[in-house]
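Marked as duplicate of an earlier ticket. Keeping the data here for the record.
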Amino acid sequence: MADQSVWLNGFLRPSGHAAINPADRGFTLGDGLFETLRIADGTPRHLALHLARLCHGAAELGIAVPLDNAQFQTAISTLITANSLPEAVLRITLTRGTGPRGLLPPADASPTLLITTAPFTSPAPEITAVICQTTRRNEFSPLSRIKSLNYLDSIIARQEAATRGAEDAILLNSKGHVTEASAANLFILKNGNWLTPPVEDGALPGILRGRLLARNLVREAQLTPMDLFTASCFCLGNTLSLRTVTALDGNKLPTDPPATEILRTVLESPKT
């Protein structure tokens, strides 16, 4: 593929010529946020919801967001056109910008904003998972509720899954309750109801999760690992995919394609 363009701090640039300052705190400290969303037929899906979450996270960290929603839309449309990718995955990365050594952010920080695209490939509809043993989700940390650049817990979990012959890992919190997968919310079907862990237990407020809750197709419930093993269906979902978990810790799980299709219909809907 030819060198794709990226949008960096107000300008389109070839990706090979887009330079991030080595003193950028996103690089040195993970001091920033990101959003990943689907581009379908040349249009960003649920952009307003993603931008609202980005702005919420930025407010939590005290990072200025340099564009308003209309300016984001213009930048994204320009990038999509430049890269000729009507079906794509788009990532918005926002960092605090450069700073001197040390943890305290500079008072005059100027944020770095990078927008990139990649071709969209639909993942397989089924996935295997394990319950992570090497790390846990900290439900007390505000980072559990925002899309920070620090994804090391998820990386550790995904590495463990690969070592154990699975594709993803389910993270528990400090109390042993279920939270989410390494990069997706989880949904289980029990007694005819779709359930998902609450944000208070450490689940990220995902975009698909929020849309399902708003339609009353899913409700929040505190879940234990045993709930996953005894569910009549178990899915992992984010803004890009909804996948049925067919095995957990090597144990085969039941599936319910008609019930899952109800959730998948919401995933594929361009409307809120």
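See parent ticket for discussion. Residues 15 and 27 are 17 Å apart (CA to CA).
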